[in-house]
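queue> pop job 88
queue> type: inverse folding (structure -> sequence)
queue> payload:
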């Protein structure tokens, strides 16, 4: 399922992310940390998208040009080239009318209208007019917005609370957001005050109390007091998920715990984050899953995979996608 939601490019740290993480697993539109436990999964048949339940039974018939996982009770759907929103019962509650749309977050969703970005509420009413050159979802009550080539933050009323001044930003997490100042990355708090000085070559959002940063071309992890809990020694790294983080040593990927100890030896070509106790791994050209001990529990036979969510994972075989359970059994046979 191609991500055709945004007509704009996300520059909030993702541009830099692409440089550092080119060897890691690619972005998946199902890899969304705050999606609902809706019990519904997007599937495609004959070029149209609908939703199945956990048993593979179709509960919302395929009828959309595109459909995304539920967040805060709503799924983004596309009809006749326009974007709107549907509820869990399959009713279109916000008529497709937008040029682009993002997920709901903190009760608001970013939408594109005539090349500008604004925000709507769950009734479809515009609460922040489309006046920004680019925008991102809300997180911790603030959303990144771009004006005249610079990024800042607004609150839920649309008021600019941190003036656009940064080349790149991340979302707020654990009370801090990464920002690019000149050629270095640091972190600011909700008031826009510098919480961690911009001294790093790259920085990612905090997760589970730690943030991956680059110093002297190596990745390590700092806490919110700007103290290295895990010294910079990795070629590549990513945020913590389920208590483990992906790291690259030489050309192979493995996992560390929060002490920095390698709990799964770097041995894989690529890896995905842990969710529900399992992580995707690439061996040769195929993908499978390991558990937290590093044991292969689902053999690498797929061309690509998404992380597990609510007991199912979307997998690709050839050009077709299906869903498997945690034993590797198909719940929904691969289709287009």
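queue> result:
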């Amino acid at each position: 399922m191609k991500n055709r939601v945004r007509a704009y490019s996300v520059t909030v740290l993702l541009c830099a992310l692409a440089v550092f993480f080119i060897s890691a697993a690619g972005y998946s539109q199902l890899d969304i940390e705050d999606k609902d436990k809706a019990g519904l999964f997007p599937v495609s048949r004959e070029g149209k998208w609908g939703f199945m339940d956990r048993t593979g039974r179709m509960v919302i018939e395929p009828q959309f040009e595109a459909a995304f996982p539920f967040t805060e009770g709503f799924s983004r759907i596309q009809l006749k080239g326009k974007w709107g929103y549907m509820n869990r019962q399959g009713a279109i509650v916000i008529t497709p009318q937008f040029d682009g749309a993002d997920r709901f977050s903190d009760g608001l969703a970013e939408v594109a209208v005539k090349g500008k970005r604004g925000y709507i509420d769950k009734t479809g009413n515009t609460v922040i007019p489309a006046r920004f050159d680019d925008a991102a979802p809300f997180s911790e009550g603030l959303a990144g917005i771009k004006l005249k080539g610079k990024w800042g933050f607004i609150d839920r009323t649309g008021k600019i609370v941190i003036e656009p001044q940064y080349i790149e930003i991340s979302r707020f997490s654990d009370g801090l957001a990464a920002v690019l100042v000149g050629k270095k990355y640091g972190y600011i708090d909700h008031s826009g005050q510098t919480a961690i000085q911009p001294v790093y070559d790259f920085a990612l959002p905090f997760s589970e109390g730690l943030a991956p940063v680059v110093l002297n071309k190596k990745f390590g992890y700092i806490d919110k007091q700007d103290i290295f809990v895990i010294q910079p020694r990795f070629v590549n790294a990513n945020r913590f998920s389920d208590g483990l983080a992906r790291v690259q040593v030489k050309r192979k990927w493995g996992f560390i715990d929060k002490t920095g100890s390698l709990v799964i030896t770097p041995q894989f070509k690529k890896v995905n984050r842990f969710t529900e106790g399992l992580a995707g791994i690439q061996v040769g050209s195929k993908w499978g899953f390991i558990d937290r001990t590093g044991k292969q529990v689902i053999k690498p036979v797929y061309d690509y995979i998404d992380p597990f969510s609510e007991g199912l994972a979307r997998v690709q075989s050839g050009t077709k996608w299906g869903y498997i359970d945690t034993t590797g059994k198909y719940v929904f046979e691969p289709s287009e």
